[in-house]
């Protein structure tokens, strides 16, 4: 089994320092790159639980961290970018389409991020999420592509949540990754089978979902039939990563209101943080509620007044609590969770309707 601190070298003669690190809990790769002369460094996809390891390595190699970059807002682990910024003063980076406002740099397609004599080029590669990017760096001897979950070794990221799109992913891979030189080294965000890297040529020849000859329509069909379970940490990781991995404030004092205690809905801005299929599903939604899926909450909340009286609704109450954490961190002070979510609201409405029906003789 791989350790949590796997390290590899690109080329002993290369003026760029490179380390590939591994988190065994989430099978996540983190990458450290640095200029060997200026000692300026960047880190890609850091994991919160591995911050001590990463800082220790930076100190041992006498490196100064300039950027902490994420390839997308992760759903399976919490980023360490926010904590690295707090401790080391680096700048945090995400693709502009991610809609994460707490980063220092919302990187646009084609933007270059310099560290010493080297530079990472940002390539927008949506599909797994709408904000995925691939970071490309050209050394003296090789082109390296850090693809996150867009392209993995003999696979790719799923496309069934976080605004995923199989069509977009297919086009992103072909236009932005497979267009790179064939010997470009692919460094993915995860691996579950013991691989550390691949190349563009290898993936074009052997990737069972994306190799040459597989059409866009075929790829869309392949992705539609995966039927994968949702990541275990989805409802924890996504809200945290929309807040740059910031540790969550204590929201234990936020009122949890029973449906029986809601006397006047008009006094609230009602925010339903479920997905659209739930909002329009069997439990329905509260009249006047604003559908704001939790992974879009940080961006949507920018247009609200911080003194608005908010009633946060989800299916059972868990996501509403997480949403209140995000909103509290953004400065909202009048927060209220609907206790039991739409399940309790639906049952309350059903009971109320039953009590108002005339008795049958």
Question: What does the average pLDDT come to?
Answer: 90
CATH topology of the largest domain: Metallo-beta-lactamase, Chain A
Tell me the name of the CATH class of the largest domain.
Alpha Beta
Unreliable segments (pLDDT under 50, ≥5 consecutive)? 7-13, 357-361
Largest sheet: 6 strands, mixed
The CATH level-2 architecture of the largest domain is identified as 4-Layer Sandwich
Radius of gyration: 23 Å
Fourth CATH level, the homologous superfamily of the largest domain: Ribonuclease Z/Hydroxyacylglutathione hydrolase-like
Total helical elements: 10
* Overall domain count: 2
- The end-to-end distance, rounded to whole angstroms, is 72 Å
Order of secondary-structure elements:
EEEHEHEEEEEEEEHEEHHHEEHEHEHEH
- Shape descriptor reads globular
β-strand amount: 15-25%
Secondary-structure class: alpha/beta
Task: Give the strand line-up of the largest sheet.
Answer: 1-2-3-4-5-6
The helix content is 10-25%
The number of E-state strands comes to 19
């Amino acid at each position: 089994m791989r350790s949590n601190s796997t390290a590899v070298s690109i080329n002993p003669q290369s003026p760029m320092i490179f380390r590939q690190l591994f988190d065994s809990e989430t099978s996540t790769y983190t990458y450290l790159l640095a200029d060997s002369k200026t000692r300026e460094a960047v880190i890609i996809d850091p994991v919160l639980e591995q911050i001590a390891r990463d800082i220790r390595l930076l100190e041992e190699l006498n490196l100064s961290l300039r950027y902490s970059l994420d390839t997308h807002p992760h759903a399976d682990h919490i980023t360490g970018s926010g904590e690295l910024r707090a401790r080391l003063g680096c700048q945090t980076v995400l693709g502009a389409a991610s809609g994460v406002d707490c980063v220092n740099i919302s990187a646009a397609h084609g933007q270059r991020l310099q560290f010493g004599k080297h530079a990472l080029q940002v390539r927008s590669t949506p599909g797994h999420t709408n904000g995925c990017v691939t970071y490309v760096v050209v050394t003296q001897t090789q082109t390296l592509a850090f693809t996150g979950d867009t392209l993995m070794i003999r696979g790719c990221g799923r496309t069934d949540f976080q605004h995923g799109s199989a069509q977009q992913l297919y086009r992103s891979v072909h236009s932005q990754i497979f267009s790179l030189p064939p010997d470009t080294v692919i460094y993915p965000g995860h691996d579950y089978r013991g691989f550390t890297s691949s190349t563009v040529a290898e993936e074009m020849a052997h990737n069972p979902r994306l190799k040459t000859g597989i059409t866009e329509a075929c790829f869309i069909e392949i992705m539609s039939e995966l039927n994968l379970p949702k990541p275990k940490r989805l409802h924890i990781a996504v809200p945290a990563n929309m807040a740059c991995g910031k540790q969550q404030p204590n929201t234990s004092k936020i009122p949890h209101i029973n449906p029986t205690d809601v006397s006047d809905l008009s006094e609230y801005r009602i925010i339903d943080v479920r997905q659209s299929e739930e909002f329009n599903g069997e439990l329905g939604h509260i009249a006047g509620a604003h559908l704001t899926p939790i992974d879009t909450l940080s961006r949507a909340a920018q247009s609200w007044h911080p003194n608005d009286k908010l009633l946060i609704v989800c299916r059972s109450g868990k996501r509403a609590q997480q949403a209140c954490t995000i909103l509290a961190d953004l400065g909202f002070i009048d927060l209220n969770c609907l206790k039991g979510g739409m399940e309790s609201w639906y049952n309350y409405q059903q009971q109320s309707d039953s009590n108002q029906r005339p008795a049958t003789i």
